[in-house]
Specification:
Strand order of the largest sheet: 5-4-7-8-1-2-3-6
Radius of gyration: 22 Å
Distance between the termini: 56 Å
Shape: globular
Structural class: alpha+beta
CATH superfamily: Superoxide dismutase, copper/zinc binding domain
CATH class: Mainly Beta
Largest sheet: 8 strands, antiparallel
CATH architecture: Sandwich
Number of strands: 8
Oligomer: single chain
Strand content: over 45%
């Protein structure tokens, strides 16, 4: 009987030790990405990423932006070296702002690989980048 109690105590102690030894990491709930001006556009601002139950909400705010639509995307890579194929499309920026929900992804998944938010000059000039920001932990 004493042996059974000792065995049960050892199992319980092992379970408790395992629970405290396993790190618990909190999911990133919000992240602000600075969008720097590119190609002398004078456009800069922020993209605020907020974790939602079904994805990541991206709210972009750009100063000195035109009123016409400017496409924006999340690209693999960094602002210095972007993969030209968009990973996630974002709602075009109009008059300096846009809001998009990227479904099925988390902020932590975006942080796990090099990705950047890129803003194009216009729908007719996608080759000219006017603002960019790397999605990275601050």
């Amino acid at each position: 009987m004493k042996a059974i109690r000792l065995a049960l105590a050892a199992i319980a102690l092992g379970a408790i030790s395992f629970a405290f030894a396993t790190p618990v990491t909190a999911a990133t709930s919000t992240l602000t990405v600075n969008l720097a001006s590119q190609n002398n556009s004078g456009e800069s601002g922020t993209a605020t990423l907020t974790q939602q139950p079904d994805g990541v909400q991206v709210v972009i705010s750009l100063a000195n932006a035109p009123t016409s639509a400017q496409p924006a995307h999340v690209h693999m890579g960094t602002c210095d070296k972007l993969n030209p194929a968009p990973e996630y499309p974002l709602t075009s920026i109009t008059a300096g702002s846009s809001t998009t929900l990227i479904k099925g992804v988390t902020i932590d998944q975006l942080l796990a690989k090099p990705v950047a938010i890129n803003v194009h000059k216009s729908t007719s000039d996608l080759g000219t980048y006017v603002a960019c920001g790397n999605i990275a932990a601050s």
